[in-house]
Amino acid sequence: MSDAVFNRDRHIKYYRRCLKTFLPDLYTGNDSNRMLLAFFTIAGLDILGVLHDETTPEERQGYIEWIYHCQVPTGGFRGFTGTDFGIEKRTPENAFWDPASIPSTFFALVILVILGDDLSRVKRVECLQWLLRLQREDGSFGDIVGPDGEIEGGRDLRFCCFAAGTRYILRGKRGEGLEDVKDIDVARLVAFIEACQTYDGGMSEAPFCESHAGLTYCAIGALTFLNRFSSDKPAPVVSPGSEEFESLVRWLVARQTSDLGENDEEQPTRSDKTQENLSQAVEALRLNGKVEALPPIEPPTEESLQWAGFNGRSNKAADTCYSFWNTATLAMLDRLGLVDAARNRRYLLEKTQHLIGGFGKGVGEPPDLLHSYFGLVSLAFEGEPGLNSVDPAMCTSHRGVQHLHSLPWWQA
């Protein structure tokens, strides 16, 4: 196999364009997620090792000020400034119209760390008190505090991971300066995470749901933030040799696939007549010999096995972001060596790396910030030249993590 080429200069231009010009109109619906888009852009330039080359000190300070503008007075960060109606007009009765969210808070803190901020203006106490209000009785976390203090948002592992990550960043080694701040119920959170492991070894959004690679990453990331790898009684799912650990690793490794979705045909939609006629719809579900009429599945060819990305669920085609979700999880479990890194690299660089820079979701698709960032990080795990090394749990460069660990509450 010939060597695939990583077009580093084009990726730098892509991120610079995303940072300093208007994003395409398709991003309009994601304006409330501007903090996440900012994370992908700033962290992408950092992993490429050019953040300080492509931005001036004044620009970086401006980004820091924008993030602090997104800080909510009662703790946490909003996703963008569009909900901010001013401190003078904010009351306990209308505060839920301008809520802090757990994902935005985590990404805001990580961006500040990447930019070299000392987090001295972060409302640590208020943020951790707010975080405590978002934990449910079953140990899981919601996204925002709604009217009358209600916990709103899905009950799944994404918010659990961001909550654990926020706690990790702000409490530090021993919670210096937070002696009077009540901690979240770590034991209940761990129990909820463990209950999300399914029969096949993967992790689902909540107990008894389908396993999913992105949610599996969130589960293991949360346990990493909660120090459940090196504690006296590590969780079984992160304990090598346990049934839970081994089945999880097998499931993750099985996500690597040579099915790139190149030959997928769009499934025909049912006609209005069929949808209106329930009996016909039920009849259409009957097999009636259709199984025998299915064409045989051809074995993979030597040509097709040159590329092998990752999927997020069984029987799905490869997707750029799952090259991250799966390899990052395996990296945290110290089992990254079990995947075929060379074929994943070829998939990313020859199938989803775009001509203008960035990565698309799948073969032939245009680049977007999410898939571009996760494509970079997956390559960084394998030591791609021109990329800084990445911490899989924090999902940012080790340079940024070292800065975090230099802060006062991490030196205690």
Automatic annotation (TrEMBL):
<keyword id="KW-0862">Zinc</keyword>
<dbReference type="InterPro" id="IPR045089">
    <property type="entry name" value="PGGT1B-like"/>
</dbReference>
<keyword id="KW-0808">Transferase</keyword>
<feature type="domain" description="Prenyltransferase alpha-alpha toroid">
    <location>
        <begin position="6"/>
        <end position="395"/>
    </location>
</feature>
<keyword id="KW-0677">Repeat</keyword>
<dbReference type="GO" id="GO:0004662">
    <property type="term" value="F:CAAX-protein geranylgeranyltransferase activity"/>
</dbReference>
<keyword id="KW-0637">Prenyltransferase</keyword>
<dbReference type="InterPro" id="IPR008930">
    <property type="entry name" value="Terpenoid_cyclase/PrenylTrfase"/>
</dbReference>
<comment type="similarity">
    <text>Belongs to the protein prenyltransferase subunit beta family.</text>
</comment>
<dbReference type="InterPro" id="IPR001330">
    <property type="entry name" value="Prenyltrans"/>
</dbReference>
<dbReference type="GO" id="GO:0046872">
    <property type="term" value="F:metal ion binding"/>
</dbReference>
<dbReference type="Pfam" id="PF00432">
    <property type="entry name" value="Prenyltrans"/>
</dbReference>
<dbReference type="GO" id="GO:0005953">
    <property type="term" value="C:CAAX-protein geranylgeranyltransferase complex"/>
</dbReference>
<keyword id="KW-0479">Metal-binding</keyword>
<protein>
    <recommendedName>
        <fullName>Prenyltransferase alpha-alpha toroid domain-containing protein</fullName>
    </recommendedName>
</protein>
